[in-house]
Inverse folding.
């Protein structure tokens, strides 16, 4: 993932628990110093101390609420200027699962602010520095709901669909720059997000739940294997190939200068 002899730091958002905390542990085990960003100072400080002791790396906590402009701006500046940051894990996210008619404007905008705006701003801040150094890795955590929507997930699915398309566009733009973008699309993962979402973790089918450890380990295995798009729970990779083929064919079929015959009035 990087030159073993150079100083290397990974910045992880949403790092105080769940997927972010596991990424912190796994990247520290690979020799990365850490900058861990989250809202909860007590958990963040405890995790940094634990990881530093376990892996002998530096782990710096930064308390920030990435729904707030001034906090995002602080992390943008760090990404743009910190020469040792070689990995950005955009993990911070939130779900408010309810019908749109029962979702407040504040809940909708909070999901957009964290899942889309913060992720985009931090990525845009990191890219010029990574490109200039011809080295860098961005891991964007989306969701299987990026390609599927439920009656309670219109807003959340919409935010994750943005992460999917944004990441895929970046992958094409950054070809041959030395900068990688990995898109990770987990299915149901056992995190605290569920209890805050309106759908308690206890209500989910346990046979469909993946642990955070298994999810992150699968995502990192995919990265090591050269994957740019990783579906941690999907065993049959031909499903994605078929989806991609159908998408490409549909797009090609849209490139016409006239309306489709079914829309023409006799």
């Amino acid at each position: 993932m990087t030159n073993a002899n150079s100083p290397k730091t990974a910045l992880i958002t949403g790092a105080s628990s769940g997927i972010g905390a596991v990424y912190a542990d796994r990247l520290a085990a690979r020799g990365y110093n850490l900058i861990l960003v989250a809202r909860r100072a007590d958990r963040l400080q405890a995790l940094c101390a634990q990881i530093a002791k376990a892996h002998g790396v530096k782990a710096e906590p930064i308390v920030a609420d990435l729904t707030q402009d001034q906090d995002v701006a602080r992390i943008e500046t760090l990404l743009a200027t910190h020469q040792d940051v070689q990995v950005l894990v955009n993990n911070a996210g939130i779900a408010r699962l309810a019908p749109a008619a029962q979702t407040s404007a504040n809940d909708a905008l909070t999901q957009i602010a964290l899942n889309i705006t913060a992720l985009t701003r931090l990525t845009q801040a990191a890219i010029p520095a990574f490109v200039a150094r011809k080295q860098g890795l961005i891991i964007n955590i989306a969701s299987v709901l990026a390609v599927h929507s439920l009656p309670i997930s219109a807003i959340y699915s919409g935010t994750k669909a943005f992460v999917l398309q944004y990441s895929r566009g970046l992958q094409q733009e950054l070809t041959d720059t030395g900068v990688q973008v990995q898109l990770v699309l987990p299915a149901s993962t056992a995190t605290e997000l569920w209890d805050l979402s309106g759908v308690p973790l206890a209500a989910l089918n346990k046979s469909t739940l993946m642990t955070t450890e298994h999810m992150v380990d699968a995502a990192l295995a995919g990265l090591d294997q050269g994957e740019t798009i990783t579906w941690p729970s999907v065993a049959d990779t031909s499903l994605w190939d078929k989806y991609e083929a159908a998408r490409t064919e549909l797009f090609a079929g849209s490139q016409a200068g006239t309306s489709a015959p079914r829309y023409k009035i006799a």
Remarks:
- Residues 105-133 form the longest helix (29 residues).
